[in-house]
Amino acid sequence: MTNEPLQPIEQDRRYLWHPFTPMAQWASQEQLVIEAGQGEYLIDNHGRRYLDGVSSLWCNVHGHQVKEIDQAIKEQLGKIAHSTLLGLISPPSAQLAQRLVKMAPAGLEKVFFSDNGSTAVEAAAKIAFQYWRNLGKQRNSFLVLRNGYHGDTLGSVSLGGIDLFHETYKPLLFKTYLAPSPYCYRCELGLKRTNCGLACAQKVEEILSQRADEIAAMVIEPIVQGAGGIIVAPEGYLRRIRQITQQYGVRLIADEVAVGFGRTGKMFACEHEDVQPDIMCLAKGITGGYLPLAATLASEEIFESFNQPGCTFYHGHTYTGNALACAAALANLDVFAKGKVLEQLPARIEQFGKRLEQLKRHDFVGDVRYKGFMGGVELVADPATKRAFDCEQRIGAHICLAIRKHGVILRPLGDVIVLMPPLSISATNIDFLFDALEATLRDCRTLLKSKAQQEK
Fold first, then answer.
1. Phi, psi of 444 (to 5 degrees)
2. Could you give the CA distance from residue 261 to residue 273 in angstroms, rounded to a whole number?
């Protein structure tokens, strides 16, 4: 009998439960062990390099091993790794709060820190709910969008609109009002793409005209619904939603967890249409993809409703405002500023968009959608009719496994192939990414044709 330690793959199979993973199929797949990262690449235990095509789940911003962020974390470790914000001040969190307020859309004046996107949204929902109670009013529901995703804790799941993720937990969720998503490729209102956005906004107005006195806030992913399938709202939709919520006195929560920190080409997606939400949620890219951290920003008006005798926001987390994470976030913002990152994006975003558009020539590509460096390629059994593949065939997952032999890591959303590389990606690597996807679609053409025939 040997006492040799288990290797990572054996340890993983024996002990680990992976998120969003059908574990019954996991063990039968070829396993990939990532041991390092450098720039835009992930490196496995055999030294093979893979382009990080989804930014390590949408959070890596400037690549791996960014010296400025590495150094900031090391320097903070020389002082303290963590101290509570309950009754104490931590300088990195105070500095970061100031930086975020200065760069956020106008009107957002206070910052509440937490750990991840779900907790940022949970805090936002509770703040909006209690805000009305502080004013002596009862508004106990929220308006949300179909295909919306705001996290996996029960409050954030209640605000979601993706049946695949949320249906199982419905008995545990609180009531919300659901409006149609501006998913114009598959408009649930049965309208053409050019009319979809305006009609979806009109449905929001119809709900608020009847239910505004029940609704604490509307929750929206500005410009792009991420986990719903990279659904890009038509121009003007977000602005119209802001006008409608203001008209009916409903607060607007902008969930910028996925779209913030340059993903759409602006620091925050709300900037594309000059929208100023009442509450904004941030996470993912806030530390450059280094450490867990989230922030919920609120307007002065909302904060002031809590700033009165006997009123407390009873919510918090052990690692709220963690010093290491805040130090990483401050360094991340320094890299944005000193490297003029946003100013460098337009040419590469244009290249990214052109390469995405070229994918339409492939037989089983139904739609491509993108904003900034957020791209989605929807694979369908029949582009002419938009007929989808059976989800049990897991076409998207098959493509994302197949592309690894071309040196790229991707992860799908159902049969939508997501392309979301770090903002640091070079023009050369943009071409490498799309060349790999094009080659994979050609490699898998016979399989896709066979699966499409089965769907008839």
1. -95, 10
2. 16
Contacts of residue 55, Cβ cutoff 8 Å, sequence gap at least 6: 61, 289, 420, 421, 422
* Angstrom distances, CA of residue 284 to CA of 118, 248, 266, 292: 11, 32, 15, 8
- Domain ranges in the chain are 8-65+341-455, 69-338
pLDDT for position 3:
64
> Beta-carbon neighbour count of residue 310 at 10 Å?
4
Check whether domain 69-338 has CATH 3.40.640.10, yes or no: yes
Question: Which distant-in-sequence residues (6+ apart) come within 8 Å of 266 by Cβ?
Answer: 272, 342, 372
| Helical H segments across 192-340, by residue range | 193-211, 237-247, 300-306, 323-338
Radius of gyration of the chain (CA): 22
Q: Give bridge partners of residue 220 from the DSSP assignment.
A: 254
Closest by CA to 359, choosing from 436, 428, 263, 265, is: 436
Q: What distance in Å separates the CA atoms of residue 400 and residue 388, rounded to the nearest whole number?
A: 18
At residue 137, the 3 state secondary structure works out as coil
The amino acid occupying position 157 is V
Tokens of 226: 């991420």
Measured distance CA(257)–CA(241) in Å, rounded: 19
Pairing mode, strands 141-145 and 177-179 = parallel
If one looks up domain 8-65+341-455 in CATH, what number appears? 3.90.1150.10
Q: Which two tokens stand for residue 153?
A: 């804790």
| Per-chain mean pLDDT for the chain | 96
pLDDT in tens, 389-446: 999 999 999 999 999 999 999 999 999 999 999 999 999 999 999 999 999 999 999 9
CA atoms within 13 A on the CB side of 59: 17
Residues 193-250: pLDDT tens digits? 889 999 999 999 999 999 999 999 999 999 999 999 999 999 999 999 999 999 999 9
Report whether pLDDT(1) > 80.
no
